[in-house]
Amino acid sequence: MSILITGGTVVTASGRHAADVLVEGETITALFAPGRAPDVPGARIVDATGKYVIPGGVDAHTHMELPFGGTFASDTFESGTRAAAFGGTTTIVDFAVQRSGENVHDGLAAWHAKAEGNCHIDYAFHMIIGGVDDESLKAMDTLVDAEGISSFKLFMAYPGVFYSDDGQILRAMQKARDNGSMIMMHAENGIAIDVLIGQALTRGETDPVHHGLTRPAELEAEATRRAISLAQVAGDTPLYIVHLSASQALEAVAQARDTGRNVFAETCPQYLYLTLEDQLGAPGFEGAKWVCSTPLRSRHEPHQRDLWRGLRSNDLAIVSTDHCPFCFKDQKELGLGDFSKIPNGIGGVEHRVDLLYQGVVDGKLSLERWVETIATTPARMFGLYPRKGVIAPGADADIVVYDPSGRTTISVHTHHMNMDHSAYEGFEIAGKVDTVISRGSVLLSGGEYHGRKGHGRYLRRGLSSYLV
Ligand code: DUC
Ligand code: ZN
Ligand code: ZN
Q1: Are the beta carbons of 85 and 438 closer than 8 angstroms?
Q2: Best probe residue, ligand 1, of 62, 65, 324, 349 (max atoms within 8 Å of C-beta)
């Protein structure tokens, strides 16, 4: 089936222009000057007059069904990818997990089993290496060569769960340098944090806000600097800092980039909009809804201003969600009386495109940079470009028609994620996802959802486009 999107403004990372977009089958086949498309018999016409036509969002950091803190992230691949589609995201890159003592290939097979046949949109995987040893290092080569997985996440936090020590990190970085893959780093000094957590609990400080207070910005910055140093020692291994939240960590990334290093970073909407005092510090146990790591930062420090600046200057290349939802009832409540037992994570896969568009409305981001940070750069960074992340002939027809005169109210009553609360309850966005197309199939149109589980396919990724 063919689709002709008429009358819209096509926005890409490099500019905006009026054009009509022709989709044939699963692919974008042509762009035409407005009104100059030939008659395509049987084509469905999507009227995008007054709207933006942008590449479908690529969320490069999600955790569907992640086992964490004695429970599982509450979105399945089915519910999470459906919610993503509602919000204009047409590709996710989720994290398959190898825990210490487990075989990497078994961990990957388990992730495929969760996702296969269940996704509403296309999906790919990074691999968490929770136990760096000879076997897992060898598996990294196989994943790059044969499984389409070209990025590996390591943790400097969570001792006893996902944690790698500096020697393990160095070995994995050396391996990544040799096979061309990317190391993604959860950069927080987990050993020091665990000491602070123990001391806080001994003092009787058990409320959720202490989750943030025991994970100070300096321990994110220290770990970020250490990761950058280790990557340098390993031979300038490409390094991607995930969920960067603190000005001091951003400063370390900026310095490395200024000297030409292969260092990249992402931030997430929660760090751009939410704070330690306003959300994590909510009265009683309410703040548990916003327990995530890295934590929300203080509104009395310039983190949010600096993160927006970092997005403009490209020291922050990408906005991902770190979507890791837990219900308040029975899941977040596992940490009643002990903040360290609250499962870490915020759900947001449905709202990233809208929340970042609000940055455009607020004058913090250009329209082109919006598209670049939510779609184009994630596709390039993680080996999905030019299939994803761009409106151009030959690309997959993953397209969002975005209505700048629409409005979106974020609420648990209207969202589609499997969560009993919203981290952004009551937020009003000056813009709205209008139509969502995934590989030529219209998933969302006129407020009606037409997607189905099983439409989404596994994407084998190549190496990052940013490396030479
Ligand atoms: N941070 C979270 O908030 N949740 C899952 C894992 C992580 O690193
Ligand atoms: Zn992390
Ligand atoms: Zn994560």
Answers
A1: yes
A2: 324
Question: Measured in whole angstroms, how far is the alpha carbon of residue 346 from the centre of its chain?
Answer: 12
pLDDT on residue 109: 98
**pLDDT of 402 over the 90 cut:** yes
Q: Say if domain 56-381 classifies as CATH 3.20.20.140.
A: yes
Nearest CA to ligand 1 atom 4: 345
Rounded Cα distance between 252 and 226, Å, is 10
CA 309 to chain CA centroid, Å, is 19
| Ligand 3 center–CA 241 separation, angstroms | 11
Cα-to-centroid distance, 81 and ligand 2 (Å): 20
Report how far ligand 3's centroid is from the alpha carbon of 47 (Å): 37
The ranges assigned to domains in the chain are 56-381
Q: What angle do CA 186, 174, 169 make, to 5 degrees?
A: 35
Q: Give me the mean pLDDT over the 112-124 stretch.
A: 98
pLDDT tens string 196-213 = 999 999 999 999 999 999
Q: Residue 216: is its pLDDT beyond 80?
A: yes
Are 9 and 18 a contacting pair, CB within 8 Å? yes
Q: What would the mean pLDDT of 283-306 be, rounded to a whole number?
A: 98
- Assign 394 a pLDDT band (cuts: 50, 70, 90): very high
Count the Cβ atoms, other than its own, within 10 Å of residue 92: 31
For residue range 3-27, list pLDDT tens digits in order: 999 999 999 999 999 999 999 999 9
Q: Ligand 1: residues whose CB is within 6 Å?
A: 63, 68, 186, 292-293, 322, 324, 344-345
- Tokens 């940013």 correspond to 466
Q: Please provide the DSSP assignment of 294-335 as one string.
A: SPPPPTTSSHHHHHHHHHHHTSS-EE---B----TTTTGGGG
Give the ligand 1 atom nearest the CA of 346: 3
Q: Write down the pLDDT at residue 100.
A: 87
Among protein residues, the one whose CA lies closest to atom 8 of ligand 1:
293
345 Cα nearest atom in ligand 1 = 3
Tell me the C-alpha distance between 148 and 144, whole Å.
Answer: 6
What is the arithmetic mean of pLDDT over 403-407? 98
Give residue 324 CA to ligand 1 midpoint distance, Å.
7
Name the band, by pLDDT with cuts 50, 70 and 90, for residue 287: very high
Spell out the alpha helix ranges (H) of 395-465. none
For range 253-270, the mean pLDDT: 98
